[in-house]
Specification:
Layout (H helix, E strand, L loop, with lengths): L2 E3 L14 E4 L3 H11 L5 E5 L12 E5 L7 H13 L3 E5 L2 H10 L7 E3 L6 H6 L1 H11 L6 E4 L2 H7 L7 E5 L2 H8 L3 E4 L2 H13 L4 E5 L8 E8 L5 E13 L5 E7 L3 H14 L3 E9 L6 E7 L8 H4 L4 H10 L14 E3 L1 H13 L5 H6 L4 E3 L9 H26 L6
Parallel strand pairs: 2-3, 2-5, 3-4, 5-6, 16-17
Antiparallel strand pairs: 1-4, 7-10, 8-9, 8-10, 11-12, 11-14, 12-13, 13-16, 14-15
């Protein structure tokens, strides 16, 4: 069932500022809404049930919808309604929403402008195999890679593999939804058989890639917003402090960091593909050669996009203005060492690290120095965070009740 909550629109909304509609919002989207509300922009969220607590924000209006892959007609109908009700501009904050916008752009009213189009640029960078092909064309270094779609193709590449290596679904968001993982490390032939078998059994193509040696601190992130004219409207770098899952996951605490070489490689790839929009690129510096290797690119609002505001780059406004077509002054220089903290994922990784002796409480506390954005948590806009905390406190008891009910419904066996 669709649930709609209407929050007060910003009183200072100007007629010249189109409404922003965010599809599948995340923590970074909340930062965008809070910043833009202060500048008079109305923000509307089309959210998943899992992030419905964002609708408690005083800065947004919104609707809860099912996954666009399951009910694309519901999304198209809602967007047509919004087009008739004042229009606006669209930003995606999930892979599923980006896929929907790219594949259904022709059915969405032209009054709702988006970065995504039918040219396939977004979809090409989302597909891990196609991404590495495009990178090779652009002269951007990548790990070695083998595409596997069938058992026969797996057998054909066995002899070329070295362990450890990395297994990725070509479309990671589908694998995480269906199998519970999108990227994992393989240390043996047995793990290869097990993990690849799971993904192939679900009808998912996979790539097997080199494990670039080096710690997670060797990962460098470049976030760029490229306009239709080829200008870079936003540029900032970041590196992970912690991530979840621990080895190959999403950053849960990150800091702003100078990454000029990563920016150059990233921009070269975007220019080669003609990409327009926001892209978050992750590269890793090889522990032996010192060379940067492309790992992946996300073509949506990152969950850690609050870092673009925390580091002083004015990311929310520059992203919005570049989509709307508003003029921009020179970007402020990002301040290194500013941090963003995403509490839900970070609580998991901190607990894991403490339980496994990978860190200590004083070490964890020390990392909070420099945090300027905390995702869902905000003193000025507290209700989303309070709602999220209440849900978190009751999530485990609800899960235990569901498991108990499931056990009681099973036939008794001796």
């Amino acid at each position: 069932m669709t649930v709609t909550r209407l929050a007060p629109r910003p009183a200072t909304r100007g007629a010249a500022l189109p409404r922003l509609i965010v599809l599948h919002p995340n923590d970074g989207s909340l930062t965008i809404a809070r910043v833009l509300a202060r500048r008079g922009v109305a923000v509307h969220l089309l959210t998943s049930p899992a992030f419905a607590h964002a609708l408690r924000s005083r800065c947004v209006t919104g609707t809860v919808l099912p996954d666009p892959a399951v009910a694309p007609e519901r999304w198209t109908s809602e967007l047509r309604r919004l087009a008739d009700d004042g229009g606006g501009v669209l930003l995606s904050a999930s892979d599923a929403a980006t896929t929907y916008l790219s594949e259904h752009r022709a059915a969405i009213p032209a009054a709702l402008r988006s970065f995504e189009s039918a040219d396939g640029a977004h979809l090409g960078l989302m597909d891990k195999h196609r991404l590495y092909e495009l990178a090779a064309e652009a002269g951007v270094r990548t790990p070695w890679m083998h595409l596997v779609s069938t058992r026969d193709e797996l057998d054909a590449v066995r002899g070329a593999l070295t362990y450890p290596c990395i297994l990725k679904a070509t479309l990671g968001h589908l694998a995480r939804e269906k199998a519970g993982f999108g990227t994992t490390r393989l240390d043996s032939e047995a793990e290869l058989e097990e993990k690849v078998g799971i993904l192939l059994g679900l009808g998912l193509d996979v790539v097997l890639t080199e494990l670039v040696p080096g710690p997670e601190t060797a990962l460098e992130g470049s976030v760029l917003v490229r306009t239709a004219s080829g200008e870079v409207a936003l540029r900032y770098g970041r590196r992970k402090i912690r991530q979840w899952p621990v080895d190959y996951g999403v950053g849960s605490m990150l800091e702003s960091f100078d990454v000029p070489e990563a920016h150059a490689h990233h921009l070269r790839l975007l220019e080669h593909t003609g990409f327009v929009g926001i892209a978050s690129c992750e590269m890793k510096r090889h522990a032996v050669t010192g060379e940067l290797h492309l790992i992946e690119i996300n073509v949506r609002i990152p969950g850690n996009f609050g870092l673009s505001q925390a580091c002083g780059a004015d990311g929310p406004w520059r992203l919005y203005a570049s989509l709307v077509g508003l003029p921009l002054d020179a970007q402020p220089r990002p301040v290194p060492g500013r941090k963003v903290w995403l509490p839900e994922e970070d609580l998991r990784t901190v607990r894991f690290r403490l339980q496994n002796g990978l860190t200590t409480v004083p070490e964890v506390l020390a990392t909070f120095r420099g945090v300027r954005d905390a995702g869902v948590l905000s003193v000025r806009d507290p209700l989303p965070g309070l709602t999220w905390a209440a849900e978190l406190a009751t999530r485990r008891p609800r899960r235990l009740v569901r498991e108990a009910l499931a056990r009681s419904s099973r036939p008794w066996r001796r």
